[in-house]
Amino acid sequence: MEQLTIAGKTYASRLIVGTGKYKDFAETRQAIDASGAEMVTVAIRRTNIGQDPNQPNLLDALPPSQFTILPNTAGCYTADEAVRTLRLARELLDGHALVKLEVLGDPTTLFPNMPETLKAAETLVKEGFQVMVYCADDPIQAKMLEEIGCAAVMPLASLIGSGMGILNPWNLRLIIDNAKVPVIVDAGVGTASDAAIAMELGCDGVLMNTAIAHAQNPVLMASAMKKAVQAGREAYLAGRMPRKLYSADPSSPTTGLIGKN
Q1: How is 152-173 classified by DSSP, letter by letter?
Q2: Are 219 and 28 in contact (CB under 8 A)?
Q3: Environment class of 238 (CB within 10 Å of its CB; exposed 0-12, middle 13-18, buried 19+)
């Protein structure tokens, strides 16, 4: 099966996973191994990747030699905060350019602040960052982000951490059909069927954290998500049969039956 390409690098897995909310770094590593993910996203404002030499470093559990580290701006509410955070991430990761931008609108819904997101994206792209960007499921603003030069657009399925699944598949299809960069569903996936639906719609990948980390068995859920993303992609490529309301079509033809002409 064809691979996912983002910012010039290819990945066999179309599942991107977060690293927060696990009980410890050991469980984080176990879940990520079970998921098969090759790219992991890290909240720079909440996770130690070298800022504090006296605390455990996530990069010891998930070394950059084995995973593509995707620093993100979770917890940022302005473009300036997000830009400063990703400049710090680039220093900590020795010039690493691939980043995930998210600028939140409020702490209750964690819905993206799109004017600030667009502003930050423009600055970051000009500074040479390869920006994967969390955004509203708005096809117009998704296209604007692409035209700024973002490496991937990442519309929400539903609110971050809600587990509500894909609430507006029609907007996602509009974004997918018009995008020339990868479209990754980000936020709101709750279980494996949600991931499969995202892939069946034609998304290039799925990013999730809470759905795995807050499952009763995170490692088993990570394995389920791996299979769901693969199955959804295969179903999309296969092309589903058309829906036929009130028109049954038997699996076996009736012509040639014994006793019939």
Answers
A1: EEEE-SSSTT-----S-HHHHH
A2: no
A3: exposed
Catalytic residue ranges: 100
- The distance from CA 81 to its chain's CA centroid, rounded to whole angstroms, is 22
Question: How far apart are the C-alpha atoms of 80 and 86, rounded to whole Å?
Answer: 10
Look up residue 86 and give its two tokens. 């990703």
Angstrom distance (rounded) from CA 76 to CA 80: 9
Percent of the chain with pLDDT over 90: 72
CB 160 within 8 A of CB 187: yes
pLDDT tens readout for residues 115-148: 999 999 999 999 999 999 999 999 999 999 999 9
Nearest C-alpha neighbor of 59 from the set 214, 82, 70:
70
C-alpha pair distances (Å), 219 with each of 2, 25, 52, 185? 26, 13, 28, 21
Q: Which residues pair with 99 in a beta bridge?
A: 131
Which one-letter amino acid corresponds to residue 212? I
Q: Tens digits of per-residue pLDDT, 73-105?
A: 999 999 999 999 999 999 888 888 999 999 999
pLDDT tens-digit series, residues 174-216: 999 999 999 999 999 999 999 999 999 999 999 999 999 999 9
Total-model pTM: 0.89
Closest to 166 (Cα-Cα) out of 204, 193, 145: 193
